[in-house]
Amino acid sequence: MAAEHGMSEFHEARFARGDLAAERTGLAYHVLRPGKRQPFVHRHKEAEEIVVVLSGSGRMKVDDEILELEPMDAVRVSPDAARALEAGDGAPLEILVFGPHHEQDAEMVDDSGFWGD
């Protein structure tokens, strides 16, 4: 998906719900290249997400809170919270995201100043 939206230099994204024929559960696999941030900030109207770090390290900003991430960390994100990820400098940040699937649920958020730098 990242390649389709011009983000493949720094971000990989795969969404397995269709391939798994999952009716209500969303599953996404993301890889952020070292030292890169997700190119967007988003929130949901209804879907709660669980983010699980598979490998690498980095940070996740959820509204005004910045969380340090390491392998096997899991973070619950409420639907209305704005969120974005940033990989550390050493290795790619590899994550799985789980949550209920709701059509047209994601909302992009103005990311100017989101990280505060």
Ordered list of secondary-structure elements with their pairings:
Blueprint: E1 11-15, E2 25-32, E3 41-44, E4 49-55, E5 58-62, E6 65-69, E7 74-77, E8 83-87, E9 93-100, E10 106-109
Antiparallel strand pairs: 1-2, 2-9, 3-10, 4-7, 4-9, 5-6, 5-8
Give keywords:
117 residues, mainly beta, Jelly Rolls, 3-stranded antiparallel beta sheet
3D architecture notes:
The chain is mostly beta strands and 117 residues long. It has one domain: Jelly Rolls. The chain is built from no helices and ten strands. The strands form three sheets. Strands 1-2-9-4-7 form a five-stranded antiparallel sheet, with no helix packed on it. Strands 6-5-8 form a three-stranded antiparallel sheet, with no helix packed on it. A hairpin with a 2-residue loop joins β5 and β6 (65-69). The radius of gyration is 13 Å and the shape is globular. 20% of the residues are buried.
Total number of strands? 10
CATH architecture group name: Sandwich
Helix content: under 10%
**What ranges have pLDDT less than 50 throughout 5 or more consecutive residues?**
none
Please name the fourth-level CATH homologous superfamily: Jelly Rolls
* Number of H- or I-type helical stretches: 0
**β content, as a range?**
over 45%
Rounded Rg: 13 Å
Give the N-to-C terminal Cα separation: 27 Å
Average pLDDT rating? 89
